[in-house]
Amino acid sequence: MWNERYSKPGYLFGTEPAQFLREHDVWLKPGARALAVADGEGRNSVYMAGKGLDVVAMDASHIAVEKARALALAHKASVDFNVADIAKWDWDATPFDLVVAIFIQFVGPEQRDRIFQDMKRAVKPGGVVMLHGYTPEQVELGTGGPPRAENMYTEEMLQQAFADFEILELRAYRRHVDEGEGHSGDSALIDLVARKPAYGGGLVDK
């Protein structure tokens, strides 16, 4: 399905980073090692690389990754791109200072808890998980994301899922989004920034 969606001309979600990422520049520290989860066509990983981060990105669609490589080349950005299924990614490789997951709500409830645990495991002590997505109200709006309320996030859900982390930000809100054809219009959004308990510090400490 994703190869088919990404095979159309242009960039489905545009080439500019998610507004969420731009608004959280404080966490994008030069030299930090970051993982972009299900990165699609590269708009977010390329942005982070441009900020001086050491970025690894993965996505299951080889067409999306080809476009991401082209975008990185155009921006003279260095990103370690990988074609990989989110369920088969090696989360136990070298840990990251920052794990960023933006609009990954193709992941349904049967897989979501495990992916959240995987993401948390991939972060160094003192490192940060940044998650941006939709609340269930998004289904009625129909301006992006799957038409399945069960795939969306609530504040209570994320509070419970990241209860073992220090939650630095958790908020749901409405905003007009203009991020390519795939995300366009009034949207019901939710943001999470959570830090893994530190016992040795990390590059992303505020």
**Assembly category:** single chain
Distance between the termini: 39 Å
CATH class: Alpha Beta
What is the number of domains?
1
How many individual β-strands? 7
On the 0 to 100 scale, the average pLDDT is 92
Widest sheet: strand ordering: 3-2-1-4-5-7-6
Number of helices: 7
User: Which sequence of SSEs, written as H and E, runs from N to C?
Assistant: HHEHEHEEHEHHEE
Work out the strand percent. 25-35%
**Relative helix content:** 25-40%
Question: For this structure, what is the CATH homologous superfamily?
Answer: Vaccinia Virus protein VP39
What CATH architecture do you see?
A: 3-Layer(aba) Sandwich
- Cα Rg: 16 Å
CATH topology: Rossmann fold
Structural class: alpha/beta
Give structural notes.
Helix content is 27%, strand content 30%. The protein has a 7-stranded mixed sheet with strand order 3-2-1-4-5-7-6. It has a single domain (2-195), classed as Rossmann fold (3-Layer(aba) Sandwich), CATH 3.40.50. The protein has helices spanning 2-6, 19-23, 43-50, 62-74, 109-121, 138-141, 155-161; strands at 33-37, 54-59, 79-83, 96-102, 123-134, 166-179, 183-195. The chain is globular. The protein contains 7 helices and 7 strands. It is of the alpha/beta class and 206 residues long. Keywords: Methyltransferase, Transferase. It comes from Profundibacter amoris.
Summary, kept brief:
This protein is an alpha/beta fold and 206 residues long. The chain has seven helices and seven strands; from the N terminus they run ααβαβαββαβααββ.
Secondary structure elements and pairings:
Elements: H1 2-6, H2 19-23, E1 33-37, H3 43-50, E2 54-59, H4 62-74, E3 79-83, E4 96-102, H5 109-121, E5 123-134, H6 138-141, H7 155-161, E6 166-179, E7 183-195
Parallel strand pairs: 1-2, 1-4, 2-3, 4-5
Antiparallel strand pairs: 5-7, 6-7
Protein name: Class I SAM-dependent methyltransferase
Domain Methyltransferase: 35-127
Organism: Profundibacter amoris
